């Protein structure tokens, strides 16, 4: 069976930046320090109204090709795009990206809908395409504009989420061999992170906006996240998937040189690190200036850790979130 490798990674952040100072102006009950302490984010990039996840993904891909001249557009034979912010219900955004990048037409292209576990799932798909001899160079893209899903008065989620896109080349050679996967799904948690309208089940806007006693909005037309339930889900399942990932790759926690989790929020990450007993010097966190970028967070962290000289040896990556969905793998560098 052919091995699959990460050959290159890049990412793109929209130009608009929303700082904690700006959020405090909207929500005076917050303080700059409280947001930074509670969430671990000082600022986040936000797509403007005319900017879509597809636009961001195209820019991430163009940056990828510009930074790695040995990777040509003609060498790409498959596009896989992870997004929960597609341009249209149909066609698939990956087809739009193929045309905008000027890639060959004799290639495969599709979207898949996943959130914070999406990059790990995307690597598993790309590895399968390589192993099956279906593709040689897969362009794995992630792109999210979650801020478009948030109500303007949603002070909790507006402090957390940032918009971004990333591009990764998965190939038959590269700097990081992709190991074995541990994946999980539990649809019983679907209601705890959801936008209820806009799909075929509830196509029309509900117009059911209400506010709780703390002034937080609740509406079927915007993203709803039950923070306490999401936290319970992660503290139960993430240690399990880490253990399964290590076992499938014949490793122990001590064998790891770096651990990169989905960058959810600083409190959750610190809790999980302590529960799993990962030494702080082996645990990479980089969300302070970009926020929780959903499916983009792991590849952005991999890119940044590589630039800092921290990406070497055996690296465990783990994503978890909406679905519920979770997954982990090992990168051997």
UniProtKB/TrEMBL annotation:
The keyword Acyltransferase applies. Keywords: Acyltransferase, Transferase. Residues 110-187 form the Beta-ketoacyl-[acyl-carrier-protein] synthase III N-terminal domain. PANTHER family: 3-OXOACYL-[ACYL-CARRIER-PROTEIN] SYNTHASE 3, BETA-KETOACYL-[ACYL-CARRIER-PROTEIN] SYNTHASE III. This is Ketoacyl-ACP synthase III. Residues 246-333 form the Beta-ketoacyl-[acyl-carrier-protein] synthase III C-terminal domain. GO terms for biological process: fatty acid biosynthetic process; secondary metabolite biosynthetic process. SUPFAM superfamilies: Thiolase-like. One of its GO terms (molecular function) is 3-oxoacyl-[acyl-carrier-protein] synthase activity. Transmembrane segments: none annotated. It comes from the Bacteria.
């Amino acid at each position: 069976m052919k091995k699959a490798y990460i050959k290159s990674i890049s990412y793109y952040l929209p130009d608009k930046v929303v700082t904690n100072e700006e959020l405090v102006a909207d929500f005076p009950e917050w303080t700059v320090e409280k947001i930074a302490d509670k969430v671990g984010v000082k600022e986040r990039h936000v797509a403007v109204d005319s900017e879509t996840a597809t636009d961001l993904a195209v820019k991430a891909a163009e940056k990828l090709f510009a930074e790695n001249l040995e990777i040509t557009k003609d060498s790409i034979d498959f596009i896989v795009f992870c997004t929960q912010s597609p341009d249209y219900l149909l066609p698939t955004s990956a087809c739009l990206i193929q045309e905008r990048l000027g890639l060959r037409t004799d290639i495969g292209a599709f979207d898949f809908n996943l959130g914070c576990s999406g990059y790990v799932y995307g690597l598993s798909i790309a590895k399968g395409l390589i192993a099956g001899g279906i593709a040689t160079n897969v362009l794995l893209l992630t792109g999210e504009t979650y801020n478009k899903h948030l109500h303007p008065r949603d002070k909790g989620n507006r402090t957390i989420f940032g918009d971004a896109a990333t591009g990764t080349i998965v190939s038959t050679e590269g700097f990081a061999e992709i190991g074995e996967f541990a994946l999980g799904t539990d649809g019983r948690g679907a209601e705890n992170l959801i936008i209820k309208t806009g799909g075929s089940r509830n196509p029309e806007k509900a117009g059911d906006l209400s506010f709780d006693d703390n002034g937080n909005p609740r509406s079927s037309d915007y993203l709803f996240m039950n923070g306490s339930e999401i936290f319970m889900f992660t503290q139960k399942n993430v240690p399990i998937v880490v253990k399964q990932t290590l076992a499938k790759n014949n490793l122990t926690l001590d064998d790891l040189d770096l651990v990169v989790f989905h960058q959810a929020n600083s409190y959750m990450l610190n809790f999980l690190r302590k529960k799993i007993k990962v030494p702080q010097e082996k645990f990479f966190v980089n969300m302070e200036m970009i926020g929780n970028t959903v499916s983009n967070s792991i590849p952005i962290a991999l890119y940044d850790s590589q630039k800092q000289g921290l990406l070497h040896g055996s690296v465990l990556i783990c994503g978890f979130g909406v679905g519920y969905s979770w997954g982990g793998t090992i990168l051997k560098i």
